[in-house]
Amino acid sequence: MDDLRSSVKISAAGLHAQGMRMRTISENLANSDSLARSPGTLPYRRKVVTFKNVLDRELDANTVRVNRVTTDQGDFGKRFDPTHPAADRDGYVLTPNVNPLIELMDMREAQRSYEANLTAINNSKAMIQRTMELLR
Prior knowledge:
Layout: H1 2-30, E1 47-56, E2 61-71, E3 77-80, E4 92-95, H2 100-135
């Protein structure tokens, strides 16, 4: 029974980590069109979540945790818009380094991982319930 409870806690850690990843992806997508406000300032910079495994001594198992949220140091895009207040002398405005296609792929991966953890929890719960029924 303890192994099944531990598996639920391990999967719950995965749900938490993937939830944080989805939150960051949502923030990136929401700001994919956020331009700088004035010349010389920078637009929104993409954020990236990294994970780490942590030994949970109580469970005697490795669980996943969010290591940190960093900013992607990739290059910004440029768009020609001489009327924009943040345009440089040549008429170009810096655009965020967010690629919606990459964000959608990351979102899909996070969704699948989240669903796999949910399935593991549901299967563990079902096994616990069946065990309880046998013990009655």
